Amino acid sequence: MAVTLKRSVLCLKHAQQIQQLPWTVPSLVTPRAFSILNRPPPNYDGHVPLTTIEKAALAAGSAVMSLLNPRRADLIAALGEATATPYFIYRLRDAMLSDPTGRRILRDRPRITSTTMSLERLRALPANTVGHEYAAWLDREGVSPDSRNTVKYIDEEECAYVMQRYRECHDFYHALTGLPVMVEGEIALKAFEFANTLLPMTGLSMFAVTRLKADERGRFWSTYLPWALENGLRAKEVINVYWEEELERDVGDLRSELGIEKPVDLRATRKMLRARRKAERAVASKLVLD
Amino acid sequence: MKASSLTIGRPVLKHFACQSCARLLRIHRRYATTASETPEIFDVVCVGGGPAGLSLLTALRASRATSSLKIALIESQDLFQTRTWKLPPDQYSNRVSSLTPSSIAFLEDIGAWRHIQSSRVQPYHEMQVWDGVSGSRISFDWPGTGSEPPQFPQQKTIAYMTENLNLTSALLARLEELGGLTIHDNTRVENINLGQETETLNLSSWPVVELADGRRLAARLLVGADGANSPVRAFAGIESRGWDYERHGLVATVQLEGEGWGGADEKVAYQRFLPTGPVALLPLPGNFSTLVWSTLPSHASLLKSLSTADFIAMVNAAFRLSPVDLAYMHTQSQGQAEELSWREQHTKFDVQRIPQRIVGAQEGTVASFPLRMRHADTYIGERIALVGDAAHTVHPLAGQGLNQGQGDIQSLAKTIEYAITHGQDIGAQLSLEPYASDRYATNNLLMGVVDKLHKLYGVQSGPVVALRSWGLQAVDAMGGLKGFLMRQAAGGG
Asked: Does B342 touch chain A if contact means CB atoms closer than 8 Å?
C-alpha cells in the first residue's frame, strides 16, 4: 500500500507538471454576470444559461436526489455539469488541448450514437478488439449508446463538448475495465474517472458507497478503490482516446498503452459469491433436513 | 583587418557635413605602420562606441567645462558604416530600444537628438500589460490633467521607440559637429596594462590600452562602455555577478494590418506575460512594430526555423491563445497558421485590447540572444569607470536597459565636470565616487524589481497566479499608485 501511495503521489506530481492544476484561473474573459430577468441567449444548441445561484441550487438538488436514487442518470448528468465549472472542465479541456489526439478530437468533435457506431459492425469484429468488447459489454448490460443526455448547463461551447465527450465515452471505460453498470461497478468506475479526470461529480458519486450492502462496501474499500486510484492516476488521460479509431485494436494492447490494469471481474465475483452462498445454504438446509 | 585611425577637427568636419562628401572621410585616415614607443596620453579613453560610449563622449564634448579634455574612442566596428546608416522607410532594424522622456531630455541637452532621423522614431502613449494565464490586466496612460509628470508638463508620451542604430548614428553626427575627438574604429583592444615609469613620466598607475595595430593609449580615466563581456572590467578586476535566465530574447520587425487601434497619434505598447516569459509588441512608425519575445531557447530556435506564415501565426497566437495552446504549437514543426485559425474560434479575447493582427515579418530580422542578469560589484576603480552593459545587464521586460545606460552617462558626465571645475584628478577613485554612489543603488533596485517580475510571472499555476492577478488589478484600480509608478518609469533609468 505504501508503495502504491508513493507511486500515486509521484503520478500526481507528474500530472501536475504536464497539466495545469485545477485551481488555475483558466478563462481569458470571465463571463458577464446576469440575473434571471435578462437571461442571455444560448451559446450553443440546447444551452441553458444559469446564474451562479441557479447552478449552486442545481448542484445541491441533483446531488441529494441522485444519492436517494442512483439510477437517475439525468440527475447525475446535471450534477456533473453544475459542478464542472468554474475550474474542472477547463482543466479537462486543457488536458485534451495538450495532447495531439485530444486536439484532433476537439477539432473533429465526433459523437458516439447508435448511428455513428454500428453495433452490427462492432459485433462482427474479432473477439478481444475494443469494438467487440464494447458491443459485447453493451449487449451484456442491455444499454445503448443513445442513452446519454445532452449537455445543457455548461456555458462555454467547447467545454460543453468536452463534457458530452466524457459522457459518451463513459461506456467505453466500462468496456475497457469490464466494470458492470450495477451501482457497485458504477462507483468503482466513477472512482477511476475521478482520479483520471478530476471531475467533481465523479468524486461526489463516492457518497453512493453509503448505499451499498456491507460486503459490497468492504469490497469497494479493499479492492476497487485502491485499484481505481492507482490506475486512474497512473493512466494517461482516457479522455484523449479517439475511440472511433481504436475499435479494431486489441483491448489488452490499448489497456497497456494507457497504463490500465483490468480489475477483478466484478460480475464474475458476485456470481461466484452468490453460487457459494447458495451452495452453503443448500448444505445448511441439507444438514437441517438430515 | 587593417586598423585605421582618424582625428576629427573642426576645419576637416566642414567637408563631412553632407552625406555625399562623406566619402572624403576615408582620405584623411592615416594608416599606422609602427607602434609608438611611449603611449599617447589622453584624459579620457572610452572603449566601446555603442549608445553608452558615444553618449558619454558627446556629453563631455558638449559641456564647456569638459570640452578641453583630450578624448579617444576605441570601437571594434566600422563607425563610418554606423554614421552613414540608412534604411528605406519600410524597413526597420530589429534592435530597437525604448527611450524614456528623461533619456530624450538628456540627449536633447547634449545636442544629439536633433540629429536623429525623427521619422523613424515612434512615441507611444499607452501601455497594455496583461497576465497570459489569468488574463488580468493593467493599462498605463497619462490621465487627463493633474497627474502629468512634473518635469514634462503637457506631454502624454510614455516612451519613444528608437532604433539603436538611429541613435548611434545621431550621436556620431553630433560628435562630428563637435569635433576634437580621436577615434580608433575598426580595431580591437589587444590588451590593457598599467603603464611604466620612465625618467620623464610616471604612468605606473595609468591604464595603457594597446590596440591591434600596436598603437598605445594611456588614459587618465579609462571608461568601459564595452558591453557585457567588458575587457575594461576584466582589466580592473571587477567581478560581475548574476545569473542566466535560460531564456532567449527573440526580436523581429513585423508589419501589422493597420496603424494600431488608436491610429497614428495614439500608439500603444503591448506586453503579455506568458509562463515562458513576456512577449512585447512595441510600435514603430506606420504599420510596423518591433517584437521582443522572451522565451525558452528551444522555443526561440523553433520560432526561427518556421516559415514566415507560421512564424506570423505564432506571434499572433502569443497575444491571443491560452498558454496550453501555445505550448502545444511549440511542439509542431509546421502548420501553426492552420492551428491558430482553428483555436481562435474557441478562444475569447477583447480584440481592441490586444495588438492588431500581424500580417508580415521583415526578412532577416528574426534573431535571438540569451538573456542574463549581471551586475558589476562596483562601477569604479582607480582610473576606471564602467557604464551601460559593462556595469549591468538587465532582463528586457521593462525596456530599461538603454535608459539605465543613459542615466549612468548623465551621472558620470556630471561627476567628471565637477572634478574638472574643482581641480580634481578626473581619474582618481575619490573623484569618481559620486558617480558610483549615485547610480549603483538606483540600478540595483530596478534590476531587482525586473528580476522579481520575471520570476513572479514564470509561475504557471497555483495560488501565486491568483495573488499576482489580484495585485495587478489592485494597482490598476489605484490611480495614485499607478501614476507614481509611471512617473518612476518615465524619469527612471
From this structure: yes
* B35: CB partners within 8 A, 6+ apart: B213, B214, B215, B216
From chain B, pick out residues whose CB is under 8 angstroms from the CB of A88: none
- Are the beta carbons of B407 and B493 closer than 8 angstroms? yes
Tell if the CB–CB gap between B461 and A23 is shorter than 8 Å. Answer: yes
Query: Hey, is B430 helix, strand or coil?
Result: helix
Which residues in chain A are closer than 8 Å to B327, comparing Cβ atoms? Answer: 98
- Dist CA A234 CA A229 (whole Å): 8
| B1-116+162-239+377-493 fold | FAD/NAD(P)-binding domain (3.50.50)
Q: Which class for B422: exposed (0-12), middle (13-18), buried (19 or more C-beta within 10 A)?
A: exposed
> CB-based burial of residue B363 (10 Å sphere; 0-12 exposed, 13-18 middle, 19+ buried)?
exposed
Phi, psi dihedrals of residue B426, rounded to the nearest 5° = -65, -15
Dihedral sign of CA atoms B139, B144, B147, B153 in order? positive
> CB count, 10 Å around CB of A151?
26
CA distance B106 to chain A (A): 41
Q: How many CA atoms lie within 13 A of B406 on its CB side?
A: 28
Domain definitions of chain B by residue range: 1-116+162-239+377-493, 245-369
Q: Is A109 on the interface with B (CB under 8 A)?
A: no
All 3 cell numbers of residue A34? 446576469
Using a CB–CB cutoff of 8 Å, tell me whether B346 touches chain A: yes
Chain Cα centroid distance, residue A185: 11
Q: Do A98 and B461 touch (CB under 8 A)?
A: no
- Which residue among A21, A25, A158 places its CB closest to the CB of B469? A25
A183 lies within 8 A of chain B by CB? no
Contact across the interface for B462 and A98, Cβ inside 8 Å: no
d(CA B348, CA B136): 14
Annotated binding site for Zn(2+): which residue ranges of A?
Answer: 170-171, 174, 186
Among chain B residues, CA nearest to A20: B461
Chain B contact for A14 (CB, 8 A cutoff): no
Question: Would an 8 Å CB–CB cutoff place A43 in contact with chain B?
Answer: no
pLDDT tens string for chain A (290 positions)?
344 444 444 444 444 333 333 333 444 444 556 777 777 888 888 888 888 888 888 888 888 887 787 777 788 888 888 888 777 888 899 999 999 999 999 999 999 888 888 888 888 999 889 999 888 888 887 778 887 788 888 888 899 999 999 888 888 888 888 887 778 888 889 899 888 888 888 877 887 888 788 888 888 888 888 888 888 888 898 899 999 998 999 988 899 999 888 888 777 888 888 888 888 888 888 777 76
Instruction: Taking the CA atoms of B310, B312, B318 and B319 in sequence, report the sign of the dihedral they define.
Output: negative
B322 touching A (Cβ < 8 Å): yes
| Cell numbers at B165, concatenated | 542604430
Contacts of A26 in chain B (CB under 8 A): 322
Task: State whether residue B430 sits within 8 Å of chain A by CB.
Answer: no
Residues of A in contact with B133 (CB under 8 A): 24-25
- Annotated domain spans of chain A: 41-264
Q: How many CB pairs under 8 A join A and B?
A: 48
| Local structure of residue A250 (DSSP, 8 states) | B
| ipTM topping 0.90 | no
| SS3 of residue A131 by DSSP | helix
**Is the CB of residue A18 less than 8 Å away from at least one CB of chain B?**
no
* CATH number assigned to the domain with residue range B245-369, chosen from the 4 options 3.30.9.10, 3.30.450.20, 3.40.50.360, 3.40.50.2300: 3.30.9.10
* E strand or H helix at B367: strand B367-376
Q: How far is A14 from chain B (nearest CA, A)?
A: 14
